[in-house]
Amino acid sequence: MASRTSKFYKENPEARKKRNDYQKKYNRKDMQIRKRVELNKINRKAGTYGNGDGLDVSHKKSGGTEMESQSKNRARNRSRK
Fold this sequence. Notes:
This protein is an alpha+beta fold.
């Protein structure tokens, strides 16, 4: 049961390549690397990094972090149609 976006990129290889190229560039930005490193460090300290428990470290509006399910953390702030 794939999402609409997943189906689109599966059927449009040129669009998928364009998106992947953009994502590679975006994820190499210093800001993104620092953010990822910080969250990975907290996740390791909590003992949940790579153990398959389905939890992420999430940034909160107050500036702190908190453990949260991956699905809720990654679904927030995405565009909706």
